[in-house]
Amino acid sequence: MVHVSESAAKQVQTLLVQEGRSNGYVRVRVKSGGCSGLSYTIDFVDAPQEGDALFEEREVRILVEKKSLLYLLGTTLEYSGGLNGKGFSFDNPNASRTCGCGESFAL
């Protein structure tokens, strides 16, 4: 399962409404790249694709493609609006190493 923190849920709902996608989904993927080897991507989409896993928490619907699912199980989508950095981040218990910016990881 992929989890959503309370602050991330609020920000996702705000952004979906701003983009006119109040019934939309958050798509989270893992791709090769970044300074630690793998990186996260996050997009807002209107519908699932074939083979997507769907998780729903705090009224946020998260889609994860099959090949990314094993990397993301147990991960929490976080959001920080503080002075030290504003944006989404991932708390991934599967990661053995992460980069300083939090956008890439290794297993």
Structure description:
The chain has helices spanning 6-18, 66-72, and strands at 3-4, 25-32, 38-45, 53-57, 60-64, 76-82, 85-91, 97-98, 104-106. The chain has 107 residues and is an alpha+beta fold. It has a single domain, classed as HesB-like domain (Hypothetical Protein Aq_1857, Chain: A, Sandwich), CATH 2.60.300. The strands form 2 sheets. A 6-stranded mixed beta sheet has the order 4-5-2-3-9-8. Strands 1-6-7 form a 3-stranded mixed beta sheet. Strand 6 (76-82) and strand 7 form a beta hairpin. The longest helix is centred in the first third of the chain and has 13 residues, at 6-18. The model has no long low-confidence stretch (mean pLDDT 85).
Residue ranges: pLDDT <50 for 5 or more in a row?
none
Query: Between the first and last Cα atoms, what is the distance in angstroms?
Result: 18 Å
> Approximately how much beta-strand content do the residues carry?
35-45%
Oligomer: single chain
CATH superfamily: HesB-like domain
Strands, count: 9
The ordered string of helix (H) and strand (E) elements is EHEEEEHEEEE
Largest sheet: 6 strands, mixed
Total domains, how many?
A: 1
What order do the helices and strands come in, and which of them pair?
Elements: E1 3-4, H1 6-18, E2 25-32, E3 38-45, E4 53-57, E5 60-64, H2 66-72, E6 76-82, E7 85-91, E8 97-98, E9 104-106
Parallel strand pairs: 1-6, 2-5
Antiparallel strand pairs: 2-3, 3-9, 4-5, 6-7, 8-9
Q: Gist?
A:
This protein is of the alpha+beta class. Helices cover 19% and strands 44% of the residues. The two termini are 18 Å apart.
